[in-house]
Every structure is written in C-alpha cells, then in structure tokens.
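[User] I wish I could look at a protein chain and see how it folds. I have put the entry right below:
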Amino acid sequence: EDGKKMSKRLKNYPEPLGIAEKYGADAVRFALMRSPAVRGEDLRFSEKYVEETVRSVLLPLWNSYNFFVTYANAAGFVPPKTFSLEDWKPTGDLLDEWMVSKTQELINVMTKELDTYQLSSTCDELMDAIDSLTNWYIRLSRRRFAGKGAEQTNAFDTLYRVLLTISQLLAPFCPFVTDAIYLNLVGTAHGSIHMTDWPKSRKISDKEQKTLHEMEATRTIVGSGLALRSEAKIKVRQPLASVTFALPPNDKTTVLSDIIKDELNVKEVKQETDVTHIADRVVKIDARKVGPRLGGKVQEIIRAAKEGKFEEKNGNLIILGETFTPEEAQIIYQGHEGKLVGCERGIVVTIDTEVSDALQQEGLARDVIRAVQSARKESGLAFTDQIILQIDGLDDIVASQKEMIERETRSTLGKTGGTTQTVEIDDKQVTLTFKKL
C-alpha cells in the first residue's frame, strides 16, 4: 500500500490467509481480478480493496438472494422448471422488462470481454448490474413482492431468473457464494453452478434498447436530484415543487417521470429543450496543465472562455485557435440566480428548493409516517398488518394529511389503547398509540 515492493522481511503487506479468513476467498479473488494486476500493471495492494468487494458485490448479492428467499417462501412461490432468460415471458411491467434487458446486456458484454480476457472491466460490469438489481429493481418493486396474484408471481419469476443468471456470470470470479445461492434456489439434484452452460448472448432488440436508455436517463436524473437535495440539506421526505432537466442536444430519450417524482419526492417533472434556460455553460481551464504549453497566452484564453468564445469539436474545446483535451478544459454548468445545478452524462438537472407551507405540512406528515413505520417494526408487526392509530401532538397535520397517513401506515386513525411511543417531530412531542386490528 505504501508503494514499496512487497517484502517478507519488511512485512509491509497483510497476511494473505488472514485476509481470506476475514473476508472470504471469493472477495480476495474478485478484488485481484478487478485490479490492475490482471493487465500486467503495478498494484498497490490494500485490505480496503477486498473490503470494498464485500461491501459492493458480495453483500448486495446476498441481500438480494435473502430478500427473494424470505418473500418467496412467505408467498409460496413455485419456481419455474428452468431459469433461462430465454424462457422468460414478458410481464408487461416496465421494471421487469428493464431488469431482464439489463441482465441480457450484461451477458453480451461479459461474453465479449471474457473472450478477450478483459477481467477488470468485466468486474466493473458485474458491480453495476448487482447495484442495479439491489438498489433499483428490488427497491422499486417491493410493493409487488409484498402484493398478491399474477403481479407478485411475475415479479418473483423475474427476480428468480435474474438472480441465477447473474450468479452464473459471477461464478468464475466468486465460485463459493454463487454455488451456495444456486444450490439452494434450484436444488442439489441439479449439481453445481459450475457445471451449467454459460448464458447465451443475443442481440438486444430496439424496444429493449429504448427501455435501457429510458431507465439510464431516469436514474441519472434521480441521482443528480438526490445529490442536489443533499447539497441543499433538504431531506428526501420533504416534498418539493419540481425538478427540471435538459438532455444533451439531439437526444430524444424519453424519461420515466413517475419514477422520478417518487424517487425525488417532487410534484412535477419539467424538461427544457435548451440547457441555457437552466444554467450557464462555463469553461473551466486547468492552468497548471496548459501553462507549460501556452505560457503567457493562458490568461488571454481564460478571459475568452469566460466570455463564451469557445467551440466544441470531437470532444475537445477550441479557444482562440488552441485545442484543449477534456483533461485540460471542460464545460461546467452554473445555475441562474444562484440555483443549484448538477450535470452527469450530459444531462443537466436543477431542483426547486423553495418549500411552501403546503409542502412543509406534507413533509411533516411524512415524518409522522416514518415514525409510525419504525414503531410498527419495533413492536413486531408484519408489513401487511392493519392497525388502529392515534396521533397526539400534531392535530393540524393529521387532519390535513389523514388520507396519506392512513394509506402509508396501513392504519385507521381514531382513539385507541395499545402500544405507545413518544417521538419528536418539528420540535414537538408527538405520542403514537396503536394496536393491531
């Protein structure tokens, strides 16, 4: 880690068997195959690389598997005879279609990369797919998994196939955890995951490509919006009026406004066709990098850039006849009148951070909902249990937001006895009393 050659005499590296004991052999394998070492480059080995693998690969995958097992057993789900994505029947649900397309795209990319021994880039693709599965597909589909009927069955069928397919793709890197998942989900009679055929590549259809682009743009807007909320120190439970975005020029991608509204907790999603309606485009020049090459001309170029005298060509910027690479100069966006803006993958996003009285009341109601949900969980109630709920201390909020509170907490508001808990909301002591119906 200190940049010196590993030496038994200096003992300047962690004990390999100790690392394997602490994090598991799978984590060590993945960390090394993701490292520059597989490209024949130097690696400053650190225990944190292995720890990151556990945190961002193994635990998310295991949590997804554990989620499936818990909910599927509770629902009495009967797995299909085969789990191939080729046998998956479209469910009509956009998230299902996106997750299957995302997994098929992973198969295609990994097959191509492994054929040319691009191990480290393959690891990055796997990490992205596992993150998409855990932090997007499962999280946004929780209500379907907890529901009933065909919608629930379709969600389980999709997750079952995706989990096993991703496990197959990860198996050469993490042979032990993937085999454990496989043997439990399909049964020991089928043998090891390492004896199964590699998932088949196929061309992604135009419809699937459209779905992938839509969801990628949607996730980018959500990610930028959450970052702006954090920068403005506005919690996600506090509703906001709107989010506004602008796509790169000539990008005709449609975004999924309903998902953006839910994830960013905004009332309206607006799109601008001209990014200058949201922010000013400003060129930022790294004077330290261009100084040795341009000498005294640097200040003149910086002034010209500030005045907007630049053009883009082939990914580079041209200012006063000089060409600058993205490492030397880049376009950044500054919000109008001090408004916060974010830009990722060419999509510029801004949020309305002004909180009206009505929005503030709804935000306080969501704080109440969160407190009730926490109290329900602590008392051992199941997600599906209906309760009768009494809230004392925020009468005006409860009166104006009664319908939302009842819907989100699976409750009927009224006078009751039962479990009591006092919480602080908006500097007020609020008493929650509830019991199962």
In short: The chain has a mean pLDDT of 91. The longest strand covers residues 428-436.
